[in-house]
Amino acid sequence: MLDTGITDLKYCLYARKSSESDERQAMSIDSQLAEMRALAENDGLNVVCELQESYSAKDSGKRPVYNKMLKGLANDEYNAVLTWAPDRLSRNAGDLGAVVDLMDQGKLLHIRTYSQTFTNNPNEKFLLMILCSQAKLENDNKSINVKRGIKTKCEMGWRPGVAPLGYMNRAFGGVKDIIPDPDRAPIIAEMFSKAAHEGYSGRRLKAWLDEQGFTSRAGKPVSLSQILVILTTPFYYGKFQYPEAPDAPWYTGAHKPLISKELYDQVQLSRGVYKGVWGSKTFAFRGLLKCGRCGADITAQDKYKTLKSGEIKRFIYYNCTRRKDPNCPEKYINEPTLCEKLLEFIEANHGKMKFSDKLLAKAEKHYNITKTLFSHYKVEQDLDVPIIEYSRYVLMKGTESEQLFIARGIDTKLSLLNSNLAFI
């Protein structure tokens, strides 16, 4: 038996293997276990338990089995560790500190590796700290080199990772690049065109793609959420951001664009992306009204028109969903007209209507500010009740968010019949 100068040692055999690239050359867990079992038998070591896991040791406190081992040492379940090499225990300062602390407390009496031993002897403990710190240094340097390599690749125009749908990753002659997918690229380009020029919605695009037999790389039909992601991905016109974070730098891709920047912008504008996330457009008064003819909900939709000046203007219309009566004759009403009708209704019926406390408080605050402003400038002005004054301001010249706030604050059920409002 190995003479350690310490009696009654109880060993925990600990084996670890990470799947990360910096440890691909390390022995497998099975190999580590086989070697350390043979060592324990040859040296007569008393191994009372075996622990193994597949976790990286770069980050402190993230390994559940390792933490279990430390707890076992602290609880005197065993007082020694058998492992393949020091870097199996620690490749970061936090875990190394935990090991050294247990040695200082007399809880960890002996560490046995394939080629070395460590006790609480100052020189041996110092050597253990150097070896584990060296492993951390190697990790840090590899991380810096990997990041440098990724940045260089981005600056050359090559986006790291799997190419977006419509492109393919290719390795040719030792060079990796991204090329258009001959089967999917033309359909992706046509999809952008249909969204921009023909007003296709996300659901209509999905139906069209399904008709084309268009699938993901896994052979499955693309989902609506995937379609929305595609339509908001700048990579298709030649730009990409890496990593995908708000403050990350932008790069010009070396790949062949499938669409023009102008077509991409037109899709974003037509779908309201500049006002929010694609597919989540806001209609202030949707959900407020019921159809006075069939009782179905009143929904909304928008249309875009290019003016002679080149400006693209958005028009919003409200209409019956026709879910209860597909032939319901209730006509469309545009948003400015609806705002006028709603204001007229509030002016005539505010005493009978119910409003949320938040809306009433906001109306009162707006009323007091307006009253003070008129008084300061000595302007003769007769103010109506607060809710009417605030409604008059919001419905005639308020922002979209202010209109949404007032619509959500009306707790009275209303119907729309012949473009006029009524109580339900």
Summarize the structure.
This protein has 424 residues and is an alpha/beta fold. It is built from 13 helices and 15 strands.
Describe the overall structure:
The protein is α/β, with parallel strands linked by helices. It folds into three domains: 11-150, Resolvase, N-terminal catalytic domain (Rossmann fold); 167-275, Hect, E3 ligase catalytic domain fold; 289-423, no CATH class. The protein has 13 helices and 15 strands. The protein has helices spanning 29-43, 64-74, 86-89, 93-104, 122-155, 185-197, 202-212, 224-231, 261-270, 335-349, 357-376, 386-397, 400-408; strands spanning 11-16, 47-53, 80-82, 110-112, 117-118, 167-172, 175-180, 239-241, 250-252, 289-291, 298-306, 312-320, 333-334, 414-417, 420-423. The strands form five sheets. A five-stranded mixed β-sheet has the order 2-1-3-4-5, sandwiched between helices. Strands 10-14-15 form a three-stranded mixed β-sheet, covered by helices on one side. Strands 11-12-13 form a three-stranded antiparallel β-sheet. Helix 4 runs antiparallel to helix 5. Residues 1-6, 21-25 and 272-280 have low confidence and may be disordered.
